[in-house]
From TrEMBL:
Protein name: FadR family transcriptional regulator
InterPro entries: GntR_C, TF_FadR/GntR_C, Tscrpt_reg_HTH_GntR, WH-like_DNA-bd_sf, WH_DNA-bd_sf
CDD domains listed in its UniProt record: WHTH_GntR
Keyword Transcription regulation: yes
SMART domains: FCD, HTH_GNTR
Length: 243
């Protein structure tokens, strides 16, 4: 079974990464009951041979399974199934639903304050950061800058408490960003949403900044929901080159 070159089923095929294909396969197996709660998944070596993927790809998929709450990894013992449905992914110390609730209550008004209080230096920093993000092709580097972007917006609001709150959830933001980019293909869309936020700040429009940040978080929420609700019928099919 080769999952290193796959396409989704359904009407219009879309490109998926090898990690996404492996994740869909393992998630489907768990949800179908091929692996029961309490079962240990096959070893990494066995899964790599069976699925014909590299160990780094497999490990990314196994980490995603843990984020979804389907498995736990025990050092020296392996990966065990702890649930057969995805409820609420966890990013670091925080559940996705809790993280998004806080982000809506903090980042949306913060964007409005930033539009009214930002300095020329704040705008220069945000514009430079956004330019780098739009040129970046490495996911890990982009994710790091994504959390820096949201921190920079908080800094532009000129209230150190806002900055401290974003600092507290920064690791969770980075984990969520990596998850959404790997499984939801969010990078280009996020860049456009970030651009709209920066333009609103540059215009000094509190209304537009609030609206842009709200739209951004709505899209994050929608992508998360799509991933959580995905079923085994969405799993990639084996076959030829990607369409």
């Amino acid at each position: 079974m080769n999952l290193s070159d796959s396409q989704t089923g359904g009407g219009v095929p879309r490109r998926v990464s090898a990690m996404e294909a492996v994740l869909a396969h393992l998630r489907g197996a768990i949800e179908r009951g091929e692996y029961l709660i309490g079962d240990r998944l096959p070893s990494e070596a066995e899964l790599c041979r069976t699925l014909e993927v590299s160990r780094p790809v497999l490990r990314e998929a196994l980490r995603a399974l843990q984020t979804m709450g389907l498995t736990v990894s025990k050092t020296g013992k392996g990966t065990f199934v702890v649930a057969n449905t995805v409820e609420d992914p966890t990013f670091g110390d925080y559940a996705a639903s809790d993280l998004l609730e806080v982000r809506r209550h903090i980042e949306i008004p913060v964007a409005g304050y930033a539009a009214l209080r930002r300095t020329p230096e704040n705008l220069d920093h945000l514009a430079h950061l956004l330019d780098r993000m739009e040129r970046e092709t490495d996911t890990t580097a982009w994710v790091a800058m994504d959390s820096l972007f949201h921190l920079a917006v908080a800094e532009a609001a000129q209230n150190p408490v806002f900055r401290r709150v974003i600092e507290e959830i920064r690791d969770a933001l980075a984990r969520q960003s990596a998850f959404l980019n790997e499984l939801g293909g969010r990078r280009e869309q996020s860049n456009r949403e970030h651009r709209a936020i920066v333009e609103a700040l540059a215009d000094g429009s509190e209304h537009d900044a609030v609206e842009a940040m709200e739209h951004h978080l709505d899209r994050v929420s929608t992508t998360l929901t799509d991933i959580v609700r995905a079923t085994r019928t969405d799993s990639p099919t084996e076959g030829g080159p990607e369409a």
